[in-house]
Amino acid sequence: MTASKPKKPPAVTVTAREAEELLKATERGGFAGQTAKIILLVATGVSKLGAALELGLDGRPVFRACREWNARRLRSLALPSRSSRATIDPEKLVELLRSPPPEGRAEWTLTELASRLGVGHTALSKMLTQRNIPWK
Question: Residues 46-55: what's their mean pLDDT?
Answer without folding.
Answer: 93
